[in-house]
Amino acid sequence: MVDDELVQRIEESFETDDEALEEELPGLLADIEGQSDELVREQPEIVSKILNRMSEMDIASFVSENPETADQFQDLLWSGVRVLAEGNEEVQQQINEDITVNFEADNCPMTGHVEVDKSESTVTGGAGVLDDPDIAITGPADVLVGLITGTVDPIQGFMQQQYQMDGPVQKGTRLAPIMNTLSEQAQVDQ
Amino acid sequence: MRLTDEQKAFRADLRGYLQENVEPVVDELDRNGPMDRDTLMGFITDLRELGVGFDPDIAPDFFGDVWKFMLTAEEISYVWPSLNVGLMMSFPSVFVRFAAEETREAMLPKLETGECLGSLAVTEPSGGSDTARPRTTARKDGDEFVIDGQKTWVGNAHYADVCLVVAHDESTGAQDMFLVDRENASFETEELDKLGWKGVSNAKITFDSVRVPADNRLSNIFSNAIMEGYDMNEIVPFPESVTQLFFEQKPLNATFSFMRTGMSFMAVGIMQAAMDEALAYATERETFEKPIAQHQLVQEKLYDMKSGLETSRQLSRRAAELLESGDPDARLMSSLAKGYTSETSKQVADDALQVFGAEGLKPENRLERYYRDARVMTIPDGTTEIQKLIVGSELTDMSAYH
Question: Which residues share a beta bridge with B394?
Fold first, then answer.
């Protein structure tokens, strides 16, 4: 159970301007650490609001200035993805093979990964990279975050060359609908 | 490179058709200027019977086999390069299958019978070959995009059923492509006269607030099809190796690599035709009481033509092999092949005409057409200068475009 004080602090942070939020975020994300899953399950709207506000920020400079906080931000992000995937029937149907993906920003030191597991029907992710992933995605940090939060359509973003993808084309076309459905869901929640 | 029995049979059938049906009429048709739609569709319908085309039944085997596509480019260009251009420029019609409902309703029946003629609008009057920064714009307005701008040198533009237009998407700030179908939208075209390739229509297009459904944006076409569970190479029926290059080298670049290798084979076809005519003439025509082939300087011309032809053919095949294997060097080699073979075709056609002497200057003689058609080769699908910049960029990983 997420404590009320934390929820209240998060809600108050929405009232502040971008600069104040940027200052407050490291502390806020540090407090959320370890409770990401509970927060996502119990307060999905609040998490969506945090992610929405963050995707309006200059992600690359935030990550460059706060590398540790960036990892905590990713943990929250991926908790959201995991929980969304668990509860979404369409995504469950779309998970029909194992896919591993690394993300690497080309304008700041941000890396992440996602694993689609067919036997568990899960989509999990986190900061840092996997050894020998199926697919490697590189691009600007705000585009990579947008892919997860739903502001960048995975297929359209690729076609419009907003990011690069390296790996077997067949794995990419299996991953795209999953990411698309998740980002559509994330947009609905916002 | 070794052709399979099936590919050899395909080539034999294609040669047979071209010799029987195109060769006897090519001189008159080319002299009369751009073919009309019915004439072009007549050839396209016949070629479909041989397994050449872009409809859902034919495209996977035609586009899906690098060698069939390249053999087609070479063999048709041996007889009539303009027909090859009219046929190949129709490929954007493949996207009708996954387009917006109104476009599918209007065009799918035509596509399924091989009668949906396509065109590709890339070049702009003010932008030339700089495809990365189109001045033509697409503005989002509700569920539609509104296209404004001009395109030039668009093959088939006059009578194409669908036109795939490269434009700057103002909603994303990125370059994208938009499929315009002429049942639901209209635009003005203006025929352009030109030095060679006289049998195919090229036109300037003006898009004046042309509205297309949002689902006709190419990235949406891909997105919608993938969401429906289609694989990339079902959407664009290229070989899997080429769709793999979509991932690694950007979709438009991979498409250009494929088309430029086709252009390279087209140049080889023109060279072979010029060489064959010159060789036959050299052994038949007599001066000073002996065939001109017995003059050393004529043999030198034959040597030069043959070496140009064979190096071009081998380079084209190398580019096709790299495409077939999805090799990262496919972009470099396709540009090298297109640039080199196009330039060489000019020289070979020039040498062939020289062997004919004054006879080669007569319009009723094919050498004159080969010369004009070869001269065009160095300009469309990226000028030789652009190919040099691509090769340079691929070799050094440093761009010298600007």
Answer: none
